[in-house]
């Protein structure tokens, strides 16, 4: 599924949080949104998972303006892992994961055998099978994050939108999740703070600063010391990963 942001602007209470953001993610492409705190990454993602409506411009999936689709229709193809607070109802992990099937169900909330297998597979993949009967509120931050990833997977989306998905995850789960995103074959738009992980995961990076797109391209072209200094205010040493060749930034404290 191809995602296009076409001159998307978001204005709230007179403040322009996103200014004419245009961005494409081709079918199966992994695009990383990076930028300093408050640069507008979450705001841009909210327009894609429809928690916000752009003040002007449009978000298109395979050429169709999202706002012309029902929420249920767009939820069948777009799954999101967000930073927005989750409802504090103490569902079990298995129930939360099964909720991912909701957009596909019509009046009959009983899971088919195939859907049950889908849930089991997503829980295996995210390493939460052993937590199935636990209440979601009793989990650690990282465990909960992995459950929400499982829920997004059972949605069987064509486009995955993730806001800081590595938050709370230990290093093994960070690496596993990002390797999954890179290899899953879905179109992915992901906001990441860690530029080294972003460089290793994404086909292309889009750099936001004060709500404006300042650079986009393959990580090796984008992550120059000058760009990082100009946008983030620190000057890194850029080296190549000895095995993969992707740029990695070293900081001197
Ligand atoms: N509802 C709102 N009303 C007013 N300002 C808002 C609102 N939502 C976000 N902002 C502001 O818009 C700017 C962009 O916020 P956003 O959360 O998109 O940034 P971000 O790049 O995701 O930041 P971070 O890296 O800190 O998560 C920030 O200055 C934020 O305070």
UniProtKB/TrEMBL annotation:
<feature type="domain" description="ABC transporter">
    <location>
        <begin position="3"/>
        <end position="235"/>
    </location>
</feature>
<dbReference type="InterPro" id="IPR027417">
    <property type="entry name" value="P-loop_NTPase"/>
</dbReference>
<dbReference type="InterPro" id="IPR017871">
    <property type="entry name" value="ABC_transporter-like_CS"/>
</dbReference>
<dbReference type="Pfam" id="PF00005">
    <property type="entry name" value="ABC_tran"/>
</dbReference>
<keyword id="KW-0547">Nucleotide-binding</keyword>
<dbReference type="GO" id="GO:0005524">
    <property type="term" value="F:ATP binding"/>
</dbReference>
<dbReference type="InterPro" id="IPR003593">
    <property type="entry name" value="AAA+_ATPase"/>
</dbReference>
<protein>
    <submittedName>
        <fullName>ABC transporter ATP-binding protein</fullName>
    </submittedName>
</protein>
<dbReference type="InterPro" id="IPR003439">
    <property type="entry name" value="ABC_transporter-like_ATP-bd"/>
</dbReference>
<keyword id="KW-0067">ATP-binding</keyword>
